[in-house]
Amino acid sequence: MKELELEKRMMDLESQVAFQEETIEQLNQLVAEQNHELATFKRHLQLLAGRLSQIKDQQSEDTNPVDERPPHY
Hints:
By secondary structure, this protein is mostly helical. It has one helix spanning 3-62. The radius of gyration is 31 Å and the shape is rod-shaped.
């Protein structure tokens, strides 16, 4: 190959590497953001599960089947 062809190939490869590095950096940032969002969602889910459990406990304490009137009354 001629020197000019080699230089062009080298420039093309350098350009591709630069583009790939930029893409990798963008994907890295996106993964970090999604990881943060996922951690937030997990915390919210745990809070909601705790609240649901509390509500279920309160409902079971508040309602005693012996005290309730049958539906036909």
